[in-house]
């Protein structure tokens, strides 16, 4: 059976977006373990002594129970360029531990720092991040990402992102692309559109 993972941001003793991580866990249990009680993320975290200063990634691997839970100091990768790469990966509402398909796509980045994935003629994600593009007025995020991230969900709920289909040929209509995930806040990693290469 598959293993799932949640990467939870811990900064100065505070966990981020726990309610959204819990919703994603609940979805995995509904689809894969409907007869089991979902893991309670807060109850799990309360069993651990965790760092009170600095930024850490809390990585929880689970199936019907927690298989491992680790706190790792977090250092953001530097991304300055993106290469468009086609993919046929399945879109998922939860995060799988198996990243072999993402890793295979990342290996196609050539001399770029990361990939910008395209599925069925539409932009989806980078290898580790959801994306949003700025058109001079609004930040637009693809309707159909490969991973429905917790930060993305929060930003949409707050009205900071608008969901639309984006084709690679439409990139010229945008000024910036922002990469973000559970660990990287929106606005921390922003590139000019010229950083995207065919």
Automatic annotation (TrEMBL):
Pfam families: Aminotran_4 (PF01063). InterPro entries: Aminotrans_IV, Aminotransferase-like, BCAT-like_C, BCAT-like_N. GO terms for molecular function: catalytic activity. This is Aminotransferase class IV. It comes from Paludibacter propionicigenes (strain DSM 17365 / JCM 13257 / WB4).
